[in-house]
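Async update (no meeting this week)

Hi team, since we skipped the sync, here's where things stand on the single-chain job. The sequence we agreed to prioritize is pasted below, unchanged from the tracker. I ran it this morning and attached the output directly underneath so nobody has to dig for it. Comments welcome in thread, and please keep replies under the output.
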Amino acid sequence: MLKINEIFGAVQGEGLYIGKPTVFIRFSGCMLACGFCDTKYHRKGKEITVEDILDYICLNVAPSVTLTGGEPMVQNYEELLKLIDGVHELDKEVYMETNGVKFYEPIYRKLDFISISPKLQSSGNECGNYVDGLNAIMDNDCAALKLQLKFVVKTQKDFEEVKAIINMYADFETPIIIQPCASPKESLNGYAKKARKLLEMIQNDLELNKYNWRFLLQNHRIIYGKRRGV
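Output:
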């Protein structure tokens, strides 16, 4: 059994696969408590069998399934492996969105794509909460994994922390996604103003420009606002 908050078909709204249709499986629970979390409703959920989850996925023509949360890695590892294998048997790819705090090699190696989003100082979590997880990825020779590092940036200190993480863990080919932090009650004009300021900061930084970075917004926020299931 896996604790699920919601399952729905939609279009990926952020990261390298932005605009690609997928089935989202939002798991319930997380080991962190980000102040800017836009899915705080993830705390509620119900236990669902892997078989029932796969039955739902069968009804959707999307070519991939995205494990998100909350945080997928707080779930039972063996049940997650069973789900991943079942999705692959349906000839669909499996992506995971994770904060990188927990690492379990058998799961990571089965995934077709991993979006690791370390939570920075402005998130309100313990500074460096991601260190053990990122170190484990490097220590287990996982350089061949298909992944992106995605950062939600709110402050100048966040930006400096991003550069420190990249210098320690990324090579020049690792896709780096930098995304402005969106406040829950912020207008689109406010979001755009914040995005412009961050983009100028990135473009003027010679150190960061050595890396394979992309500046991306959250499409689903721009199109749908705070609506769920999109």
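Quick observations from my side:
The mean pLDDT is 88.
The longest strand covers residues 2-11.
Reply here if anything looks off.
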